[in-house]
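Run log // design_07
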């Protein structure tokens, strides 16, 4: 399976970069992982029109990286909550049904544009809480790794 991770913003903290590298290494035996970082748009004045313009620009950048045949999973606060086991079933079902080119999208600090949400094939939520984007990338990669361990019957997920 090929997985592309599209994230808004760069990882600045070394401890997050180290954790990401560790999960990328672990995942390399299961998937081909490609990470694309999109620049986050700065908002000069925090008002709704500036925020929407920022989200729209980030959204267009995200969409420019997605191909028509890719299955897109967006991380959204209002998405579906899944257990690790059910997330593994979701990933396994994608593989079984021939959807072997998956894109995972983590939006910017204000979320995802409506255009990106419409392109999404599946909205996933890890919590109603808000997490730092850097941490969310680590958590997402860990859960993808956990899913493959569950799929293969390994003991890591216990």
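design_07 sequence
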């Amino acid at each position: 399976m090929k997985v592309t991770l599209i994230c808004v913003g760069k990882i600045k903290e070394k401890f997050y970069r180290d954790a990401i590298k560790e999960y990328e290494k672990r995942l390399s035996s299961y998937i081909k992982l490609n990470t694309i970082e999109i620049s986050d748009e700065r908002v000069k004045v925090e008002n709704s029109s500036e925020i929407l313009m920022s989200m729209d620009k980030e959204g267009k950048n995200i969409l420019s990286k997605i191909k028509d045949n890719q299955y897109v999973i967006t991380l959204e606060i209002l998405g579906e909550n899944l257990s690790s086991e059910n997330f593994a079933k979701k990933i396994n079902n994608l593989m079984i049904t021939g959807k072997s080119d998956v894109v995972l999208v983590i939006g910017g600090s204000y979320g995802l544009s409506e255009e990106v949400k419409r392109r999404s094939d599946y909205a996933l939520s890890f919590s109603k809480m808000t997490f730092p984007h850097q941490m969310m990338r680590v958590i997402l990669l860990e859960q993808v790794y956990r899913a493959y361990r569950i799929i293969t019957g390994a003991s890591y997920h216990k």
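The radius of gyration is 15 Å.
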